[in-house]
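Here is a complete protein record:
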Amino acid sequence: MNNDKLLIVDGSSMLVTSYYGNLPKQILFEKDEEKKKLYYNKILHAPDGTYTNAIYGMLRTIKKIIDNQKPTHMVVCFDQTRDTFRREMYADYKGNRGETPEPLKQQFMNMETLLADIGIVVEFSEKYEADDIAGSYAAKYEKEIPTFVISKDHDYLQLISPYTRLWLVQTKQEAADALIDTYYGAFGIDKKDISIPDKAFEVTPDICRQEFGVYPEQIPDLKGITGDSSDNIPGVKGVSSAATPLLQYYGTLEKIYEAIDEAGTTALQKSLTTFWKESLGISRSPLKAMIEHRETALLSKDLATIRKNYEIHHSLDELKININEAARDNWYKKLGIKSL
Protein backbone atom coordinates (compact mmCIF):
# COMPACT_ATOMS: atom_id res chain seq x y z
CA MET A 1 0.00 0.00 0.00
CA ASN A 2 1.29 3.44 -0.92
CA ASN A 3 1.63 5.56 2.23
CA ASP A 4 3.14 8.62 0.55
CA LYS A 5 1.99 11.93 1.98
CA LEU A 6 2.92 15.51 1.07
CA LEU A 7 3.04 18.02 3.92
CA ILE A 8 3.06 21.74 3.07
CA VAL A 9 4.18 23.79 6.06
CA ASP A 10 3.34 27.44 6.67
CA GLY A 11 6.87 28.10 7.89
CA SER A 12 6.33 31.73 8.83
CA SER A 13 3.38 30.90 11.07
CA MET A 14 5.18 27.97 12.68
CA LEU A 15 8.35 29.97 13.37
CA VAL A 16 6.48 32.96 14.80
CA THR A 17 4.40 30.66 17.03
CA SER A 18 7.57 28.93 18.20
CA TYR A 19 9.22 32.29 18.92
CA TYR A 20 6.43 33.63 21.12
CA GLY A 21 5.85 30.25 22.71
CA ASN A 22 9.44 30.13 23.95
CA LEU A 23 9.96 33.73 25.11
CA PRO A 24 11.01 34.73 28.63
CA LYS A 25 8.09 36.17 30.62
CA GLN A 26 9.95 39.47 31.01
CA ILE A 27 9.58 40.00 27.25
CA LEU A 28 6.25 38.27 26.69
CA PHE A 29 4.37 40.48 29.17
CA GLU A 30 6.25 43.74 28.60
CA LYS A 31 4.43 46.26 26.39
CA ASP A 32 7.25 48.76 25.96
CA GLU A 33 9.36 47.70 22.95
CA GLU A 34 12.51 49.39 24.25
CA LYS A 35 12.22 47.67 27.63
CA LYS A 36 11.82 44.32 25.90
CA LYS A 37 15.28 44.75 24.39
CA LEU A 38 16.79 44.85 27.87
CA TYR A 39 15.88 41.18 28.26
CA TYR A 40 16.97 39.90 24.86
CA ASN A 41 19.93 38.22 26.55
CA LYS A 42 17.48 35.91 28.32
CA ILE A 43 16.16 34.51 25.02
CA LEU A 44 17.44 30.99 24.32
CA HIS A 45 20.65 31.36 22.33
CA ALA A 46 23.70 29.50 21.05
CA PRO A 47 27.17 29.82 22.64
CA ASP A 48 28.04 32.52 20.08
CA GLY A 49 24.92 34.53 20.96
CA THR A 50 22.78 33.45 17.98
CA TYR A 51 19.11 33.40 18.99
CA THR A 52 17.59 29.92 18.86
CA ASN A 53 14.27 29.86 20.74
CA ALA A 54 12.11 29.91 17.58
CA ILE A 55 14.43 27.57 15.66
CA TYR A 56 14.44 25.08 18.50
CA GLY A 57 10.65 25.15 18.83
CA MET A 58 10.06 24.75 15.10
CA LEU A 59 12.59 21.95 14.73
CA ARG A 60 10.99 20.12 17.64
CA THR A 61 7.55 20.48 16.01
CA ILE A 62 8.77 19.29 12.59
CA LYS A 63 10.64 16.36 14.11
CA LYS A 64 7.54 15.25 16.01
CA ILE A 65 5.38 15.51 12.87
CA ILE A 66 7.89 13.48 10.84
CA ASP A 67 8.03 10.85 13.60
CA ASN A 68 4.28 10.63 14.23
CA GLN A 69 2.40 11.65 11.08
CA LYS A 70 5.15 10.28 8.80
CA PRO A 71 4.96 12.56 5.76
CA THR A 72 7.18 11.30 2.96
CA HIS A 73 7.39 14.64 1.11
CA MET A 74 7.62 18.16 2.50
CA VAL A 75 7.97 21.80 1.48
CA VAL A 76 8.22 24.66 3.96
CA CYS A 77 6.91 28.03 2.73
CA PHE A 78 8.08 31.35 4.18
CA ASP A 79 7.15 35.00 3.75
CA GLN A 80 10.18 36.95 2.61
CA THR A 81 8.73 40.46 2.58
CA ARG A 82 5.49 42.35 3.20
CA ASP A 83 6.01 44.28 -0.03
CA THR A 84 4.39 41.66 -2.26
CA PHE A 85 1.97 42.21 -5.15
CA ARG A 86 -0.82 42.79 -2.62
CA ARG A 87 0.89 45.98 -1.42
CA GLU A 88 0.79 47.17 -5.02
CA MET A 89 -2.96 46.55 -5.03
CA TYR A 90 -3.57 48.11 -1.62
CA ALA A 91 -0.84 50.18 0.05
CA ASP A 92 -2.21 49.59 3.56
CA TYR A 93 -2.18 45.80 3.25
CA LYS A 94 -0.68 44.47 6.52
CA GLY A 95 0.00 48.10 7.38
CA ASN A 96 -1.14 47.54 10.96
CA ARG A 97 1.72 45.17 11.78
CA GLY A 98 4.68 46.29 13.82
CA GLU A 99 8.35 45.75 13.04
CA THR A 100 9.57 42.16 13.36
CA PRO A 101 11.71 41.86 16.53
CA GLU A 102 15.40 41.48 15.70
CA PRO A 103 15.78 38.10 17.49
CA LEU A 104 12.95 36.69 15.34
CA LYS A 105 14.18 38.32 12.14
CA GLN A 106 17.59 36.71 12.62
CA GLN A 107 16.02 33.28 13.13
CA PHE A 108 13.99 33.50 9.92
CA MET A 109 17.20 33.63 7.91
CA ASN A 110 18.90 30.89 9.90
CA MET A 111 15.85 28.61 9.84
CA GLU A 112 15.50 28.83 6.08
CA THR A 113 19.18 28.02 5.57
CA LEU A 114 19.16 25.22 8.15
CA LEU A 115 16.19 23.42 6.63
CA ALA A 116 17.62 23.63 3.13
CA ASP A 117 21.00 22.36 4.35
CA ILE A 118 19.53 19.31 6.10
CA GLY A 119 17.44 18.27 3.10
CA ILE A 120 13.98 19.85 3.47
CA VAL A 121 12.77 21.98 0.56
CA VAL A 122 12.28 25.67 1.42
CA GLU A 123 10.41 28.19 -0.72
CA PHE A 124 10.03 31.99 -0.45
CA SER A 125 9.46 34.84 -2.88
CA GLU A 126 9.76 38.62 -3.17
CA LYS A 127 6.43 38.76 -5.04
CA TYR A 128 4.26 36.09 -3.41
CA GLU A 129 3.37 35.26 0.19
CA ALA A 130 3.82 31.89 1.87
CA ASP A 131 0.14 31.02 1.38
CA ASP A 132 0.39 31.63 -2.37
CA ILE A 133 3.39 29.31 -2.55
CA ALA A 134 1.55 26.70 -0.47
CA GLY A 135 -1.54 27.02 -2.65
CA SER A 136 0.48 26.60 -5.81
CA TYR A 137 2.18 23.44 -4.52
CA ALA A 138 -1.13 21.98 -3.36
CA ALA A 139 -2.77 22.70 -6.71
CA LYS A 140 0.18 21.17 -8.56
CA TYR A 141 0.49 17.89 -6.65
CA GLU A 142 -2.72 17.21 -4.70
CA LYS A 143 -4.08 14.79 -7.32
CA GLU A 144 -0.81 12.85 -7.39
CA ILE A 145 -0.32 12.45 -3.65
CA PRO A 146 -2.48 12.92 -0.51
CA THR A 147 -1.73 16.49 0.54
CA PHE A 148 -1.84 18.13 3.96
CA VAL A 149 -1.23 21.75 4.87
CA ILE A 150 -0.40 22.88 8.41
CA SER A 151 -1.01 26.45 9.55
CA LYS A 152 -2.85 28.47 12.19
CA ASP A 153 -3.87 31.03 9.54
CA HIS A 154 -7.55 30.80 8.53
CA ASP A 155 -6.66 32.05 5.03
CA TYR A 156 -5.48 28.51 4.34
CA LEU A 157 -9.02 27.17 4.69
CA GLN A 158 -9.56 28.02 1.02
CA LEU A 159 -6.95 25.42 0.02
CA ILE A 160 -9.06 22.55 1.35
CA SER A 161 -10.36 20.26 -1.36
CA PRO A 162 -11.29 16.59 -1.83
CA TYR A 163 -7.54 16.01 -2.16
CA THR A 164 -6.09 18.47 0.39
CA ARG A 165 -6.72 18.65 4.12
CA LEU A 166 -5.80 21.49 6.44
CA TRP A 167 -4.29 20.83 9.85
CA LEU A 168 -5.54 24.03 11.45
CA VAL A 169 -3.42 24.79 14.53
CA GLN A 170 -5.27 26.00 17.63
CA THR A 171 -3.88 28.09 20.47
CA LYS A 172 -4.38 25.31 23.00
CA GLN A 173 -4.68 21.52 22.85
CA GLU A 174 -8.03 21.72 24.65
CA ALA A 175 -9.48 23.73 21.75
CA ALA A 176 -8.28 21.17 19.21
CA ASP A 177 -9.65 18.31 21.32
CA ALA A 178 -13.05 20.00 21.57
CA LEU A 179 -13.25 20.35 17.78
CA ILE A 180 -12.23 16.72 17.31
CA ASP A 181 -14.91 15.61 19.76
CA THR A 182 -17.52 17.73 17.99
CA TYR A 183 -16.83 16.71 14.41
CA TYR A 184 -15.32 13.25 14.72
CA GLY A 185 -16.81 12.03 17.98
CA ALA A 186 -20.26 11.93 16.38
CA PHE A 187 -18.95 9.11 14.19
CA GLY A 188 -17.46 7.23 17.12
CA ILE A 189 -13.93 8.35 16.23
CA ASP A 190 -11.64 9.12 19.17
CA LYS A 191 -8.66 11.45 18.80
CA LYS A 192 -6.43 8.44 19.52
CA ASP A 193 -7.79 6.86 16.33
CA ILE A 194 -6.55 9.64 14.05
CA SER A 195 -3.05 10.95 13.53
CA ILE A 196 -3.00 14.75 13.80
CA PRO A 197 -0.16 17.02 15.03
CA ASP A 198 -0.38 18.55 18.51
CA LYS A 199 -2.88 21.43 18.85
CA ALA A 200 -4.14 20.83 15.31
CA PHE A 201 -7.56 19.95 13.95
CA GLU A 202 -8.06 18.39 10.53
CA VAL A 203 -10.55 20.36 8.42
CA THR A 204 -12.38 18.84 5.46
CA PRO A 205 -14.65 20.72 3.01
CA ASP A 206 -17.80 19.70 4.94
CA ILE A 207 -16.30 20.57 8.32
CA CYS A 208 -15.25 23.96 6.95
CA ARG A 209 -18.89 24.60 5.99
CA GLN A 210 -20.18 23.50 9.39
CA GLU A 211 -17.61 25.33 11.50
CA PHE A 212 -17.13 28.54 9.52
CA GLY A 213 -20.45 28.79 7.68
CA VAL A 214 -19.02 28.63 4.16
CA TYR A 215 -17.21 26.16 1.93
CA PRO A 216 -13.43 26.51 1.38
CA GLU A 217 -13.79 28.24 -2.00
CA GLN A 218 -16.02 30.89 -0.35
CA ILE A 219 -13.44 32.01 2.22
CA PRO A 220 -12.26 34.94 0.02
CA ASP A 221 -15.90 35.99 -0.50
CA LEU A 222 -16.42 35.90 3.26
CA LYS A 223 -13.39 38.10 3.84
CA GLY A 224 -14.56 40.41 1.10
CA ILE A 225 -17.42 41.33 3.43
CA THR A 226 -15.99 40.76 6.92
CA GLY A 227 -12.46 41.93 6.13
CA ASP A 228 -9.46 40.60 8.05
CA SER A 229 -7.99 42.78 10.79
CA SER A 230 -4.79 40.69 11.01
CA ASP A 231 -3.94 41.59 7.39
CA ASN A 232 -5.62 45.02 7.47
CA ILE A 233 -8.12 43.97 4.80
CA PRO A 234 -11.02 46.42 5.16
CA GLY A 235 -14.12 44.52 4.04
CA VAL A 236 -17.49 46.23 4.52
CA LYS A 237 -17.82 47.84 7.93
CA GLY A 238 -20.74 46.93 10.14
CA VAL A 239 -22.28 44.08 8.17
CA SER A 240 -20.16 41.08 9.18
CA SER A 241 -23.11 39.19 10.66
CA ALA A 242 -24.87 39.26 7.29
CA ALA A 243 -21.93 37.79 5.39
CA THR A 244 -22.54 34.12 6.12
CA PRO A 245 -26.29 33.96 5.35
CA LEU A 246 -25.80 36.02 2.19
CA LEU A 247 -23.05 33.71 0.93
CA GLN A 248 -24.95 30.59 1.91
CA TYR A 249 -27.78 31.77 -0.32
CA TYR A 250 -25.98 33.50 -3.21
CA GLY A 251 -22.68 31.62 -3.24
CA THR A 252 -20.30 34.43 -4.15
CA LEU A 253 -19.81 38.14 -3.54
CA GLU A 254 -20.40 38.84 -7.21
CA LYS A 255 -23.77 37.03 -7.11
CA ILE A 256 -24.81 39.17 -4.13
CA TYR A 257 -24.08 42.28 -6.18
CA GLU A 258 -25.98 40.85 -9.14
CA ALA A 259 -29.05 40.55 -6.89
CA ILE A 260 -28.57 44.12 -5.66
CA ASP A 261 -28.19 45.43 -9.21
CA GLU A 262 -31.27 43.55 -10.37
CA ALA A 263 -33.29 45.18 -7.58
CA GLY A 264 -32.39 48.58 -8.95
CA THR A 265 -35.21 50.84 -7.79
CA THR A 266 -35.94 51.84 -4.22
CA ALA A 267 -39.16 49.80 -4.14
CA LEU A 268 -37.44 46.62 -5.33
CA GLN A 269 -34.53 47.21 -2.96
CA LYS A 270 -37.02 47.35 -0.10
CA SER A 271 -38.45 44.06 -1.30
CA LEU A 272 -34.93 42.58 -1.36
CA THR A 273 -34.16 43.66 2.21
CA THR A 274 -37.49 42.21 3.31
CA PHE A 275 -36.51 38.90 1.68
CA TRP A 276 -33.14 39.00 3.42
CA LYS A 277 -34.83 39.60 6.75
CA GLU A 278 -37.65 37.09 6.48
CA SER A 279 -35.90 34.30 4.56
CA LEU A 280 -32.24 34.69 5.49
CA GLY A 281 -32.66 35.97 9.05
CA ILE A 282 -30.74 39.21 8.48
CA SER A 283 -32.34 41.67 10.89
CA ARG A 284 -30.20 44.70 10.06
CA SER A 285 -30.08 45.36 6.34
CA PRO A 286 -26.54 45.54 4.90
CA LEU A 287 -27.82 46.90 1.57
CA LYS A 288 -26.69 50.52 1.95
CA ALA A 289 -23.23 49.60 3.18
CA MET A 290 -22.79 46.94 0.49
CA ILE A 291 -23.68 49.46 -2.22
CA GLU A 292 -21.46 52.21 -0.82
CA HIS A 293 -18.45 49.93 -0.37
CA ARG A 294 -18.72 47.73 -3.46
CA GLU A 295 -15.20 48.49 -4.70
CA THR A 296 -13.73 47.89 -1.25
CA ALA A 297 -15.57 44.58 -0.91
CA LEU A 298 -14.35 43.31 -4.28
CA LEU A 299 -10.81 44.51 -3.54
CA SER A 300 -10.93 42.79 -0.15
CA LYS A 301 -11.95 39.52 -1.78
CA ASP A 302 -9.09 39.83 -4.26
CA LEU A 303 -6.60 40.54 -1.47
CA ALA A 304 -7.82 37.51 0.48
CA THR A 305 -7.64 35.15 -2.50
CA ILE A 306 -4.64 32.82 -2.41
CA ARG A 307 -2.90 32.75 -5.78
CA LYS A 308 -1.95 29.43 -7.33
CA ASN A 309 0.29 30.67 -10.13
CA TYR A 310 3.59 30.72 -8.25
CA GLU A 311 6.24 29.02 -10.38
CA ILE A 312 6.94 25.58 -8.90
CA HIS A 313 10.68 24.97 -8.60
CA HIS A 314 10.71 21.36 -7.41
CA SER A 315 9.41 18.09 -8.78
CA LEU A 316 7.46 15.80 -6.49
CA ASP A 317 10.47 13.51 -6.29
CA GLU A 318 12.61 16.42 -5.10
CA LEU A 319 10.19 17.03 -2.24
CA LYS A 320 10.97 13.64 -0.67
CA ILE A 321 12.25 13.97 2.88
CA ASN A 322 15.84 12.79 2.97
CA ILE A 323 17.54 14.21 6.04
CA ASN A 324 21.27 14.89 5.76
CA GLU A 325 22.23 13.76 9.25
CA ALA A 326 25.77 15.15 9.10
CA ALA A 327 24.51 18.62 8.15
CA ARG A 328 21.80 18.41 10.78
CA ASP A 329 24.28 17.47 13.51
CA ASN A 330 26.61 20.28 12.47
CA TRP A 331 23.77 22.78 12.80
CA TYR A 332 22.76 21.37 16.17
CA LYS A 333 26.33 21.68 17.39
CA LYS A 334 26.65 25.22 16.05
CA LEU A 335 23.40 26.31 17.70
CA GLY A 336 24.03 24.45 20.95
CA ILE A 337 20.95 22.26 20.50
CA LYS A 338 21.37 18.98 22.36
CA SER A 339 17.93 17.66 23.29
CA LEU A 340 16.85 16.95 19.69
The chain has a mean pLDDT of 95. DSSP finds 16 helices and six strands in the chain. The two ends are 31 Å apart (CA to CA). The first strand starts at residue 6 and ends at 10.
